[in-house]
Amino acid sequence: MIEAGSSLAPLLIGDVGGQEPLPGTHHGTCYVCGRQTEHGWAEAPSDNFTAWSQIYRGSVMCERCRPIFKDRRFRQRSWVATTTGVQFADSEHRTLLWDTLREPPDPPFCVYVTAGGQKQGWISLGIYLSTSRERYWVGTDWTDRPVLIERAWVHDQAELIDRMRERKMPKQVLLDGQFSSGAWDRAMREEWTDDIEAVLARVGDPRWEVVVRAHP
Ligand SMILES: [Zn+2]
Description:
Layout: E1 2-4, H1 9-16, E2 26-29, E3 36-40, H2 66-70, H3 73-76, E4 79-82, E5 85-88, H4 96-102, E6 110-113, E7 128-130, E8 135-140, E9 147-150, H5 151-166, H6 171-176, H7 181-190, H8 193-202, H9 206-214
The chain binds zinc ion.
């Protein structure tokens, strides 16, 4: 079951992240999670706020979403939130995302993958809580809404990505498909042009970008 429309995700993140509520003074509907609040924040989040395209309702940020917004780790890092805690993908947890995509935790959970670490892209997860290990949402900072991923599909891509990364193909090449003539020459010599063709067939698929970026 996928619950698009659930407003539990930020509460989950807030609860398990040990975030204390940050009460404001404005009442209204939270534009992140959709909750009614008497303690919201009505001002524009910041000058460099770049997630407006995801905001479609509400006039305040509630006291539960506010501390997540203020905690820079939630935008600078990729992370996984479950009912037992938030894990950030840092240097000590390099395989976190890749492991999670292939073997998701017990639901409910939230997964966020950042490419740039600048945008508050996690806000779009506010109404996309994952409630299945087979099909789940991944929030990103390069799509307007979370990407729906099937676990079996990730497993289908794994060997291709593993092979290309072992060949030292940069992630950017796997994302844009701009293989150099040298790469083509080598692929012909070593007989893996089929893999290049397979990559080219996936370029532009948001699910592909998720798994390439998630690969350690
Ligand atoms: Zn909220």
